[in-house]
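Anyone opening a protein record will find just a pair of labelled lines. With that in mind, the following record should read easily:
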Amino acid sequence: MSPPFFVAEDLHVAIEGKEILKGVDLVINTGEIHALMGRNGAGKSTLTHALMGHPKYEITRGRILLNGEDLATLPPEERAHKGLFLAFQYPTAIPGVSVVNFLRAALKARRGADMPIKEFRTTLFAEMDRLGMEKQFASRYVNDGFSGGEKKRLEILQMAMLQPTLCLLDETDSGLDIDALKIVAEGVNHYMNPNVGVLLVTHYQRLLNYITPHFVHVMIDGRIVQSGGAELALQLEAQGYDWLTPQLRDQSPVAGRQSQ
């Protein structure tokens, strides 16, 4: 039996010596969308940044396995080469670098070779059209003066162009109005396929009205304390987090499921 596509095993992460993640276990198989929910400060964004290899986030214990390979000691660029992608909650502006040049350089780094210019432009404009972006958007500087919705659409455009296999989406719905939310969700749904796994960090059920997760996980104080199906997000929307008892908070069950 082949190993699960992605496994975080007993993952402990510290920032400047302070432990934030306290033993996270998570399994994601290809073709699955996992939603991660929890209060502010629970450790959700810490998990995505640690998985991507941000140097500020020190892995003090545990493993990060992708197709059976431990990525925990690899730098971010090598993790990206192996198929990881992180869409940021607060994307950074890069004045002076156009969207088209940024995407062309990123795609070359991901593939190890340039995509023919005609193919690149055809693919780029098709994905932009799908995300409701005008063609002149490609000539603008990356996130420079962008609205919140434009920044998030560019994150999804990067995902579509780079073709990662594990997509980490950190509060992609943050700052979006309802129209932009629908467009971004449609972009994620269009990209989803049986060879891709998604970890979607969100606070709200509203995004999950458009992107239906296979699994929902609740993080409290650096641990995943509860996992279930899409109905768990509805329960959180209705009841909040107080119903999660202190006994549950001391647990760290393996989330998701193994490949059968």
Notes: Residues 148-162 form the longest helix (15 residues). The chain has nine helices and twelve strands. Residues 6-92+166-249 form a domain with the Rossmann fold fold (CATH 3.40.50.300). The longest strand covers residues 18-28.
